[in-house]
Amino acid sequence: MGALAQQTIELPSWAFGNSGTRFKVFAQEGVPRDPFEKVADAAQVHRYTGVAPRVSLHIPWDKTEDYAKLSAHAAEQGVTIGAINSNLFQDDDYMLGSLTHPDARVRAKAVAHHLECIDVMRATGSTDLKIWLPDGLNYPGQDNLRARQDRLAEGLAEVYAGLDPEHRIILEYKFFEPAFYSMDVPDWGTSLLHCLALGEQAMVVLDTGHHAPGTNIEFIVAQLLRAGRLGAFDFNSRFYADDDLMVGSADPFQLFRIMHEIVSSGALAPDSGVNFMLDQCHNIEPKIPGQIRSVMNVQEATAKALLVDADALHAAQQSGDVLGANGLLMDAYNTDVRPLLAELRESQGLDADPMRAYGASGYAEKIKAERVGGAQAGWGA
Ligand code: PSV
Ligand code: MN
Ligand code: MN
């Protein structure tokens, strides 16, 4: 129970805004109109789960005049500001790349954006600068693959030089989209190579939706933990591509296998350096309950991973007991941990059922009534 109680999960501000696919964005009533309201909604998730005390921001989606005020507002709501995400994918200048662009002027603009994000970190007390590059090529020959890596290394080094000692760069990878022939940071190996070149304050972000189907993600987790460079997760669920659905919804067993690697490496504790973040959008389901359900899914996978009998597993592995070892994992996975989690919540003064408690709180009705009119902030707003 102790280890479970220690776990924290960071929520994305953009999960609370309107979102959709490239076909349509379905507007929901009561969604936040600014970053202050997004933080207030995220705080509701923490209020009913007790394990989601941080909110990531995305700049400029969450741009505001006074970040110290936003940070104070978060504190009033019982949460803090987590990772600051840069945004290099919604500016015409970046059509051919940002930090990898052939034109030095565009690269300098992308570096300057990151330095601004570092200022936001200073104003909000955030320690993680999360970088995801949409950069890449659609066509063979479109640009020089190797030169783009050199430009990227140079740009990242300039950003890294702007960090304070307590800051980290966390560098995300993605195998395709928006570029289809070649992404500039397509995989964990590329991200890791850049992080190693940068220094100790650079770590890899593993977004569970950013791999080819069939990829063994827990292997990547184990490998990055070995190298001491797993900085964070962007948790979500996928069937086909970067679907950004609720983590653990399609493949709870995969989430369990990931958490088993985390637990067996002792990487669950907040001081392990692994930031457990969600990166999701709720296009057709209500957003705050969608986040609550996601947090609970991560907790359930973690609780099951903690149930694995590590000594027995080690003994089975050492003696070559293939079926015994596999059976030990399956025993843990097949345990219903919901009563245990309900007990944990009650011991922390929370309602045993966060979904029910939020539903009964009247908050959804309140925001529907209060947040009428105004531009609704969403993914990309
Ligand atoms: C890109 O697909 C990504 O996973 C990055 O983390 C972005 O910041 C985020 O999605 C935007 O939703
Ligand atoms: Mn992501
Ligand atoms: Mn993504």
From the structure above, extract its key features:
eight-stranded parallel beta sheet; TIM Barrel; two-stranded antiparallel ribbon; binds manganese (II) ion; binds alpha-D-psicofuranose; 381 residues; 10 strands; alpha/beta
Helix-strand layout with pairing:
Blueprint: H1 2-6, E1 10-12, H2 35-49, E2 54-58, H3 67-76, E3 80-85, H4 104-124, E4 128-131, E5 136-137, H5 145-161, E6 168-172, E7 182-183, H6 188-198, E8 202-207, H7 217-226, E9 230-235, H8 252-264, E10 275-278, H9 287-307, H10 310-318, H11 322-333, H12 338-347, H13 354-361, H14 363-370
Parallel strand pairs: 1-2, 2-3, 3-4, 4-6, 6-8, 8-9, 9-10
Antiparallel strand pairs: 5-7
Helix pairs in contact: 2-9, 2-13, 4-5, 7-8, 8-9, 10-11
This protein binds alpha-D-psicofuranose and manganese (II) ion (2 copies).
Keywords: Carbohydrate metabolism, Isomerase, Manganese, Metal-binding
GO biological process, one term: L-lyxose metabolic process
GO molecular function, one term: metal ion binding
What does this 3D model show about the protein?
The chain has a single domain, classed as TIM Barrel, CATH 3.20.20.150. Helix content is 45%, strand content 11%. Strands 1-2-3-4-6-8-9-10 form an 8-stranded parallel sheet. A two-stranded antiparallel ribbon has the order 5-7. The model has no long low-confidence stretch (mean pLDDT 96). It is globular. Helix 2 packs across helix 9 (287-307), helix 7 (217-226) runs parallel beside helix 8 (252-264) and helix 10 (310-318) packs antiparallel against helix 11. The chain is an alpha/beta fold and 381 residues long. It has 14 helices and 10 strands. Residues 14, 85, 132, 172, 174, 207, 234, 242, 279 line the site of alpha-D-psicofuranose. One of its GO terms (molecular function) is L-rhamnose isomerase activity. It comes from Actinotalea soli. Pfam families: AP_endonuc_2. This is L-rhamnose isomerase.
